[in-house]
Every structure is written in structure tokens, then in C-alpha cells.
Design brief:
This protein has 100 residues and is α+β, with helices and mostly antiparallel strands. It is built from three helices and four strands; from the N terminus they run E-H-E-E-H-E-H.
Length: 100
């Protein structure tokens, strides 16, 4: 499985050069900064290589931050629902009764 790593580029960096340097570190993929988020590259890194990738990415000239995308990690950890959910919430407070 792969983990997303967000790499924030410093304002004076050359995005093309930084992306090339990130690719040299060996992640599964590196997505160059997109127009809607111009200062951030996204790398997909094998789980067993995340720690070393983040450490090495931080040492690249033009990188200001490299960190695991905690939002994608949290989303991946949530269990998948196997069936439809009840439309009514259950009340587990003591003394509650539907007949009172």
C-alpha cells in the first residue's frame, strides 16, 4: 500500500527541478504542483519507505515542508460499511423508553 506525502515548495524554488529530485528518491508516483495548488507536489510512497522519503525530501533545495498527508491516512483507516445504515439514531441513554 502507498502513503501520500505532501511536499510544499518554497516560494523561490523551481518546481520542475524539485519534482525531478523527488522522483529520484524512488516514490511510486510524484504529481507536480497543480494550478489550483501551485506550491505543493504530491508523492505516493510505499509504506515501508515513507520515513526515509520524508527525511530525504526535506533536504532537497526548494522544499520547505514534506509530511505525510494525515487526511488521506485517516480516510484509509476508516472501516468500510457493509450495509445500509439505519435512518434513525439509537439512544443508549439510561431510562429512555419509546413507550413513555
Amino acid at each position: 500500500m502507498a502513503t501520500r506525502v505532501l511536499v510544499t515548495l518554497s516560494g523561490d524554488s523551481d518546481p520542475e527541478r524539485v519534482v525531478h529530485a523527488l522522483r529520484d528518491l524512488g516514490p511510486a508516483t510524484v504529481h507536480a504542483p497543480a494550478p489550483e495548488l501551485p506550491g505543493v507536489a504530491v508523492a505516493e510512497v510505499d509504506d515501508d519507505a515513507v520515513e526515509s522519503f520524508v527525511h530525504d525530501a526535506r533536504s532537497i533545495e526548494g522544499v520547505s515542508v514534506a509530511e505525510v498527508d494525515t487526511l488521506s491516512s485517516t480516510q484509509r483507516a476508516e472501516p468500510q460499511s457493509s450495509g445500509p445504515r439505519s435512518a434513525e439514531p439509537s439512544d443508549t441513554s439510561p431510562g429512555w423508553s419509546s413507550t413513555s
